Amino acid sequence: MRAELETEVLKGVSRSFYLSLRLLPLPMRRAAGIAYLLARTSDTIADSVSGSVGERIDALLDFLKQVMGEHVAKSFPEHFYEGITDPREAMLLLSHLEILEALRGLGAGEIELIHEVLETIVGGQVLDLQRFGNASDELSSLRSAEELEDYAWRVAGCVGLFWTRLGFLTMGENFSKHPQVELEQWGVEYGKGLQLVNILRDFPEDRRMGRCYLPVSDPRDDAACFREFQTWRASALQKVALGQAYADKLVSWRLRLASGLPALIAEETLERLDVRNLAALELRVKVPRWKVYQMLFRYLLHA
Length: 303
Known about the structure:
Blueprint: H1 3-13, H2 15-23, H3 26-47, H4 53-68, H5 87-94, H6 96-104, H7 108-132, E1 140-141, H8 145-171, H9 180-201, H10 203-208, E2 211-212, H11 222-248, H12 253-272, H13 289-302
Parallel strand pairs: 1-2
Helix pairs in contact: 1-2, 1-3, 1-5, 2-12, 3-4, 3-6, 3-7, 3-8, 4-7, 7-8, 8-9, 9-11, 9-12, 11-12, 12-13
């Protein structure tokens, strides 16, 4: 796989994950990078390609079968690119055959883990399209806390499980001497917490697009939405705190920083999301790049 995909493209679509990936020890790095590029490809199909909801769902399911080796890998049709404005996302789609070829070059255990996590992620993306694919026509919301927890598991909690299992598969006790079962549980909750941060940060934009991930009976009711916002912010704080506990149980400082950096960024984001009303969220919360590098520097001083 070309270096551009593992550096410039990945760096462009997620700067924070790129930093975590570069910090990972070599035994984990390649499989983690390929899994992320595949997940971002499916995310681009779900959110950015031209086509109806049904067409995007069909494309996602076909892409998953290509990942699984059940369908012959083939290039995406040209009309997919019409709705894509980010050239890095376009490059992802153009390079997906190369990414699949890199996947085939991994060990059997790594491939199995990537199959598992991609199947869960794509399932979540399909469910999201079924719920909100026509959201611009009518504002709708999730119906219960259980639906939100399930969504967070499908798109991010499963990544925490994948990360943990990949670490133990490729590094054994050099990954962690803590019981794997407990680390897996913490990893799932950590991943779900990171997704809750995204949902809270993006709440105003999502609602304008017709989708409300907070479980309220009336997504137009600002007071009800803000109560749920506060409830899920508290939940996110608890889950993200498990991320720090998770990182502390890893063996090397590189692993601890790679796994704990998203928690540091999430905690800073949640602090900035401690607002008095929904109107304060209209200025989108974002942790500046200098702040992220400051976190890295402070950690390294105490590593």
